[in-house]
């Protein structure tokens, strides 16, 4: 049940990563409270358990922890579990909220001994705050600058020992000096259908919803390997089952419900399918520039690139090349279409991603 790390820029979708307040409230109620309840991420869970157990035996604070991975895989949940396992409070903030070094200094100076500071989207923190964080993580102190110009003085501020848990969806944007100061780094992987099935069964029990094994499997197969999405789909299927069926979630009920909500058997939603159909039917499978493809589906370029494209690439339905976006044979097959003779066909997978190319114009830059 690990469905956190929502990003403010992502448009609301049933299978997207953003969540409204109601979803967030339900998600919070379903979050596992300790590592034994946490489903999936076996390697990260085992390694983190050793780190926390050793810290408790020493009677000290845990090392700083960096968690990376796609939205919805459990980074915020794990940060809360770290605090619970250590028996300390947790303070939650985000990188975009810290735009000045003074913002970070105010947060750090109010921490209690051993407290966990969770910093979501840490790669989006401002550079001055980031440089202040280096000293805070290593020496548990910061220098607060008072005044300006030649008369400015640095006042050292001692901090209590604390554990920083940083979360990022783009680990490559973290500068090496910051990344190297974390004692433990864990990468969150997408979930297998069997693991998502366990997530769904646990959530169904907490929501008092009867779900068959086949029903859970149907939902898991359309959840993009992401627990947050699995739980959101479960709630929508529950609504359908209570209104249109006897309240019991079977494979048939789940399939009918997700058809109503426009989530197909591979987890593609309306936007994903619109992008694929435009690429195949309007542009013959590509190559086509991203801006042109976005205009064809009536969306912003950033929406197509950041919301729809990553999943389509991961599923092997679309490839990025220097000339633009190209459909794979799997894309034609998924929509039940036959590729015209001479259509460019990518072999599948992620293709070759060249940032800044294939963005404008019909056939690339």
Distance between the termini: 42 Å
The pLDDT mean sits at: 83
CATH superfamily of the largest domain: P-loop containing nucleotide triphosphate hydrolases
CATH-scheme architecture of the largest domain: 3-Layer(aba) Sandwich
Number of H- or I-type helical stretches: 14
The rounded Rg comes to 23 Å
Helix content: 40-55%
Protein name: Holliday junction branch migration complex subunit RuvB
Catalytic activity: ATP + H2O = ADP + phosphate + H(+)
GO biological process, one term: DNA recombination
EC number: 3.6.4.-
Which SSEs are present, and which pair or pack?
Layout: H1 21-30, H2 42-58, E1 65-68, H3 75-86, E2 90-94, H4 101-109, E3 116-120, H5 127-139, E4 141-146, E5 153-158, E6 163-168, H6 176-179, E7 184-187, H7 193-207, H8 213-220, H9 227-244, H10 251-260, H11 270-282, H12 290-297, H13 301-314, E8 318-321, E9 324-327, H14 329-334
Parallel strand pairs: 1-6, 1-7, 2-3, 3-6
Antiparallel strand pairs: 4-5, 8-9
Enzyme class: hydrolase
Binding site for DNA: 301, 320, 325
GO cellular component, one term: cytoplasm
Summed up:
This protein is of the alpha/beta class.
General description of the model:
It is a single chain. The chain folds into three domains: 32-187, Rossmann fold (3-Layer(aba) Sandwich); 193-260, Helicase, Ruva Protein, domain 3; 269-365, Arc Repressor Mutant, subunit A. The chain is built from 14 helices and nine strands. The protein has helices at residues 21-30, 42-58, 75-86, 101-109, 127-139, 176-179, 193-207, 213-220, 227-244, 251-260, 270-282, 290-297, 301-314, 329-334; strands spanning 65-68, 90-94, 116-120, 141-146, 153-158, 163-168, 184-187, 318-321, 324-327. The strands form three sheets. The chain has a five-stranded parallel β-sheet with strand order 2-3-6-1-7, covered by helices on one side. Strand 8 and strand 9 (324-327) form a beta hairpin. Helix 8 (213-220) runs parallel beside helix 10 (251-260), helix 11 (270-282) packs across helix 12 (290-297) and helix 12 crosses helix 13. The longest helix is centred in the middle third of the chain and has 18 residues, at 227-244.
């Amino acid at each position: 049940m690990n469905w956190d790390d929502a990003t403010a820029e992502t448009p609301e979708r049933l299978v997207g990563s953003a969540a409204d307040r109601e979803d967030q409230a339900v998600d919070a109620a379903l979050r596992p409270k300790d590592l034994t309840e946490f489903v999936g991420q076996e390697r990260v869970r085992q390694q983190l358990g050793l780190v926390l157990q050793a810290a408790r035996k020493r009677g000290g604070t845990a090392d700083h922890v960096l968690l990376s991975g796609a939205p919805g895989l459990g980074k915020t949940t794990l940060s809360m579990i770290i605090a619970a396992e250590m028996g300390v409070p947790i303070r939650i903030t985000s990188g975009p909220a810290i735009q000045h070094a003074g913002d970070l200094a105010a947060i750090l100076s109010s921490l209690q001994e051993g407290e966990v500071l969770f910093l979501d989207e840490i790669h989006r923190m401002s550079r001055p705050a980031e440089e202040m964080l280096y000293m805070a993580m290593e020496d548990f102190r910061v220098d607060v600058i008072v005044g300006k110009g030649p008369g400015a003085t640095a006042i050292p501020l001692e901090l209590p020992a604390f554990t920083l848990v940083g979360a990022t969806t783009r680990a490559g944007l973290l500068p090496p000096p910051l990344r190297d100061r974390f004692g433990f780094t864990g990468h969150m992987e997408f979930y297998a259908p069997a693991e998502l099935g366990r997530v769904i069964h646990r959530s169904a029990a907490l929501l008092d919803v009867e779900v068959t094994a086949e029903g859970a499997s149907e939902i898991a197969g359309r959840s993009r390997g992401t627990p947050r999405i699995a739980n959101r789909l479960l709630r929508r299927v529950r609504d359908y089952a209570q209104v249109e069926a006897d309240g019991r979630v079977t494979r048939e009920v789940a399939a009918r419900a997700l058809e109503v909500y426009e989530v197909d058997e591979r987890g593609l939603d309306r936007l994903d399918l619109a992008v694929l159909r435009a690429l195949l039917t309007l542009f013959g499978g590509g190559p086509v520039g991203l801006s042109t493809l976005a205009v064809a589906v009536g969306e912003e370029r950033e929406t197509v690139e950041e919301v729809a494209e990553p999943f389509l690439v991961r599923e092997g339905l679309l490839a990025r090349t220097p000339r633009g976006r190209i459909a794979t044979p799997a894309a034609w097959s998924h929509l039940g279409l036959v590729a015209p003779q001479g259509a460019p066909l990518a072999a599948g997978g992620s293709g070759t991603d060249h940032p800044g190319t294939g963005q404008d114009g019909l056939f690339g830059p």
